[in-house]
Amino acid sequence: RVLTREGKSRAYLNGQQVPLQILRSVGESLAEIHGQHEFQSLVKSSAQRELLDAFGGHDSLADEVATLHRERLQHSSALESLEAAARDRDARLDLLRHQAGELAALSLKPGELQSLGEERNRLANSGRLVDAARSALDLLFDAEDNNAHHAVSRALAVLRQSAGFDSKLEALLPPLEEAAIRIADGAQELTRYLDSIEADPHRQEELEQRLATIESLARKHRCAPDELPSKAIELSDELTRLEKIEANLSALRAQVTSAVDAWRTAAARLSKQRRKAANELATEISARMQKLGMIGGKFDIQLNVADLPEGGTAANGLEDVAFLVSANAGQPPRPIGKVASGGELSRLSLAVQVALAGRIKDLAVGGCMVFDEVDSGVGGAVAEIVGRELAALGASAQVLCVTHLPQVAALGNQHLRVSKMSDGRTTRTQVTPLESDSRIEEIARMLGGVSITGKAREHAAEMLDAGATLSRRSSSRDGGSSSAGSARKSRGRAR
User: Fold this and answer.
1) Residue 52: what are its φ and ψ, rounded to 5°?
2) Separation of alpha carbons 295 and 288, rounded Å
3) Bridge partners of residue 11, in order along the sequence
4) Crossing angle, helix 45-56 and helix 59-87, to 10 degrees?
5) How far apart are the first and last CA of the chain?
6) Rounded CA gap, 349 and 364, in Å?
7) Which of 108, 160, 352, 427 fits as disulfide partner to 422, beta carbons 3.0 to 4.6 Å?
8) Rg of the chain's alpha carbons, rounded to an integer?
9) What is the largest CA-CA distance in the chain?
């Protein structure tokens, strides 16, 4: 995040400018901050549930419960949609049966519409057609001495008499002979046509009624007349679906019931494991609270039965998880996010994280935890215990601690001094890496104030040696890993 001199702010992620909210959300996933006012994830019910599931080693079962819940939602959604359709089914079925029956009775075949139209035109104009065919037949064949066939036949007779004198003239005979044959054939076809056509008022009325019915149904279904066969198929398919809706409803109800039963079985197993893990985690954290100066304090994990509707499920199981704490003896347990003292809140955070460290490999999402003045309000032996707890936590994650106490700072294996510097006009913050003698000097300053004595330096060196010894032992217990030790940082901050 870049703040300009003009007071403007820009956020960048991997070199690309992004909204500040995105940067904040990514930052929260990379570092877990535990401070007097930065309890972050542990005050969220969802994080408390996830931590409990991870501590108990049943997070995979929790995932299964969430998956079964999603499956139940899918089946329930499909059932609701089908039930909505079923509510309107009876009225729709009556309409569909009537409409499908009309189209089935019509029984319009593909291509029939064109055939009916042609037949109607033929019957409507039968008189005109007969007159035309009879006139043509007379002209071609029937009129005595004045028809085309007679004329062609006479022409052939004349040409045959002289064709022997000229081959070219003789070559004209075959086409004329073929013309005479074709005229005779045409006359026969016209005769048959005249025999077949006649006025039929009854048939014409039938055609008009059928075509009118087709047009009426086409208007009713808002489609072209030739689309009625496909409309009949469409209505028939819908009718079949609605008639089968009861069977589909029964099948979906069975699926929902099965999904709920599977969810309840898995959720009951999860609840049993959560109760066991809750007792163990609460006992362990309560014990650590005593070491951290919260004498008489008690940590409790409450599993509240979720308010589920009849046949309902929930992604998180049968209960809601709530972390409660009583910071002092005699105080009633309260939600962890409402603990008044910032120092108590920080130490409680440390107790929770150390307790979880033994169970969870990836303790912090991004592998880094920041404790800001976790030692506030404590001193002496309690401060050293806080430091030891931080050192133990550093075996499984990177830990950075902001502290004013030498007992805590001496147990870190890398140190940065954070100080403010002013030239009278401006003030700036300076971060200085400390090595070797400078580490001793800073611890001695934290022990003795402005005037650093030789004894203070000796004491500081002893404290750092003790911290290094503890670090080597922790590293040895963790299998000799040096990366965890080098990742642990403690920062002494000068005032």
Assistant:
1) -65, -45
2) 10
3) 18
4) 130
5) 26
6) 13
7) 427
8) 50
9) 160
How many Å separate Cα 108 from the centre of its chain? Answer: 48
- How many residues can be counted in the chain? 495
Cα 429 to the chain's mean position, in Å? 46
User: Distances in Å between the alpha carbon of 185 and those of 68, 87, 156, 205?
Assistant: 84, 70, 18, 34
Residue 305, H or E segment: strand 298-305
Q: Which residue has the tokens 């404290």?
A: 463
Determine the residue type at 127: G
In the sheet that holds 398-403, the strands lie side by side as: 32-34, 368-372, 398-403, 489-492
- β-bridge partners, 325: 299, 334
In angstroms, the Cα distances linking 283 to 100, 221, 277, 301, 422 are: 73, 75, 10, 10, 49
Lookup: tokens for 491: 């920062």
Select from 3.90.550.10, 3.40.30.10, 3.40.50.300, 3.30.110.10 the CATH code of 375-495.
3.40.50.300
One digit per residue, the tens of pLDDT, for the chain of length 495 reads 998 888 889 999 999 999 999 998 888 778 777 655 545 567 788 888 988 998 898 989 999 999 999 999 999 999 988 888 777 777 777 888 888 888 888 887 777 777 877 777 777 667 687 778 788 888 888 777 678 888 888 888 888 888 888 888 889 889 988 988 998 888 888 888 887 777 667 777 777 788 888 888 888 888 888 888 888 888 888 888 777 887 888 899 999 999 999 999 999 999 999 999 999 999 999 998 888 878 888 999 999 998 888 888 999 999 999 999 987 788 888 888 776 466 676 677 777 777 776 565 544 445 688 877 766 666 777 788 888 888 887 877 788 888 888 988 998 888 999 888 888 888 888 899 998 889 999 999 888 777 888 888 889 898 888 888 877 776 666 554 333 332 233 334 432
Would you list the domain boundaries of the chain? 90-243, 375-495
Phi/psi of residue 402, each to 5°? Answer: -95, 120
Does residue 72 contact residue 259 with C-beta atoms inside 8 Å?
yes
CA–CA distances in Å: residue 204 to residues 94, 117, 211, 456? 34, 11, 11, 126
Give 315-347 as a DSSP string: TT-SEEEEEEEESSTTPPPEEGGG---HHHHHH
Take residue 94 and report the two structure tokens written for it. Answer: 């009556």
Task: Check: CB of residue 393 under 8 Å from CB of residue 385.
Answer: no
74, two tokens: 């899918």
Burial class (CB in 10 A: 0-12, 13-18, 19+), 53: buried
Positive or negative: CA dihedral 121, 126, 132, 133: positive
